[in-house]
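Write out this protein's structure.
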Amino acid sequence: MKHHLAVQPTERPSVRQTEAQPNLTQYPDVNTSLRLFLQGVQAILGDLMVGMYLHGSLATGDFNPQSSDIDFVVVAAQPVCDDLLSALAVFHARLAASGLKWATKLEGAYISKEAIRRYEPEKTSCAWLGADGHFAREPLGNDWVIQSYVIREMGVTVTGPDPKTLIDPILPEDLRRAELATLRWWWSPQLDNPFRLRSREYQAYAVLTMCRALYTLQFGTVVSKSCAARWAQTNLGERWVALIQRSLTWHIRDGVDDSCLALEFILYTSKCAQHIELSLSEVND
């Protein structure tokens, strides 16, 4: 891995919406689901609603209609109480049963205005909707720092104030620490128990996520997975070029099994991260 590159790839600037718009994205069916989602949440939260924002692939420009989720965050004036949590759970169940394609692809958090300001592990328990429909209070992991950065710098505002007024600036060293922690607690254990890599979709997800992790560790910023993948193909060596390309163009029925190579790439990323963490420690000392 090259550690001192002078130029970063140019990233497509995001289009920020400052108030609720009829067409937030270029995908009409996504917009239909978002409008119903927004109306339902506003009806339940009322005056507690501060804003709703999209992050993930819809914000970074990586959205794939065949595989992506709709990553969202709803900011409330205060933590969502149990009664509102129950009402939201019923609403999400009804929305998922509506027949709208994207109603079952929502994933995100209901978080208080205080908690979204900065990442403090002891204050980040929130209501979380998983892509599988699971809805409950859960703590946010270190990867929330990265998601917060995307919300603040690239997020799409469905309704509410500019997210930069809600989230404090996130420094390069904060992003690096978050990536290192996420690699330790989520990805490293998969080296011993790689059952998720049986899925073709997860193989591609893992490879592209490793590309972005390495990019963030290198530059102290976040770009789209496709942008990070192009950088990785140029800078990580011939060994990984084809694997990354297949991950960029994967299809559920492409007949490819990259589970072993994806596992090797996770190991490679973990080793690179260890070297970078050691270098950072030496600088701090």
